[in-house]
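explain this.
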Amino acid sequence: MGKYGISMLFQVILVALFTRLSAQQKITAVEFTGLTKTKISFLRQYVTVDEGVPYDSVQLAKDRQQLLNLTLLAEVEVRITGDSSHVKIVFVCREMINTLPVFALGKTVDTFWFKAGLQSLNFSGRGDRLFAYYQYYDRHSIYLNYAADRIGSSKWGATASLIKWATIEPLNSMGGVSNYDYTNYTGYASAVHFLTFRETLDLGVGIFNERFEPKQPQDNELNEIVQGNKILSKFIFKSNHLDYKAFNVEGIYNQFNVEFIHSLDEVENFVTVFNDFRFFKLVGKRFNWANRLRTGIATNDDNPFAPFVLDSYLNIRGVGNRVDRGTGSIVFNTEFRYALFDAKMFAAQGVGFFDFGSWRKPGGSFNDFTKTENMRAFSGVGFRFIYKRAFDTMLRIDFGYDYNKNAGLVVGIGQYF
């Protein structure tokens, strides 16, 4: 046997010996340090390493990433001590700032909006979330939501919401634009079942009352639309295989929604189905490629207030606010995020993006998706100024432009998607 054969055999023996020793190592203790609010009992539900089980470095790395994916911890360092037969694992954590003010505002030619309130992403230390804010968007709205990530040590969570939502909704018609006051009072609750760490099933029910009223008596194309009292039932399946790496994201996310609205008055029942697919890829050290494909279909009533809305803040940057509505929607967003700098507390990204969408008109056909007049395509550039010690806390500015020389500036908090 030549010297290269002997060397290779020696390496194989070393690898086999190391593997065997690693397999024989047992975990004697699992500890968490650095926590001020988050309960250790809550974090233990998201890791598989435990006392008495064999040490597995690959699984430990997955557990560390799973803790980061909770978006409660800014940093998680794993420290391992022990000998050839026993190891002790310590997760050294640094929590994010989880209680933050809610503040945002925007201005277009015809609209001013303002939002202020409070959000807690770790209300009692068990990953439960509380959102409470007031919004002025031509009219006054109040939103209150609580979501328990897990109830005790079970695989069940719960959500509850109370909402008064009031806006002015424009109705585009042959005679111009008519404005309607839209008011919605909603009470909603759901039960969330964790199928795995990354898959959840959400079943919810709520009751709401909504009303459309014309702003001016002369706006009488639809004198008064009263949609009355209704029961809302929801089925939501989420598959979240995203890994968070500071302000960058990698992986795949999919959310499938089915909503059924049963009218308690004379209005017909209504069904909405939509799917949200997202794909993120890290390219080198500075580029993060982000993609979103949203598709939806709903009961095809000839109703001017159809559920899918064309809007700068929702799907097509630069197009304007509540430009059009439809009973079907296909929207694709893609953007390249480039890290301009990355410091200890702050970072910044430059963004290039392309947004495309097509809509089915209320009462229309599937051919509407292929008609040019129902399509919108905007491209543009943006900027993100990021505060790294709180999740998704950044100032977002995007400028979108289309081939018809339409343009618009969109300002918000958090990534666009």
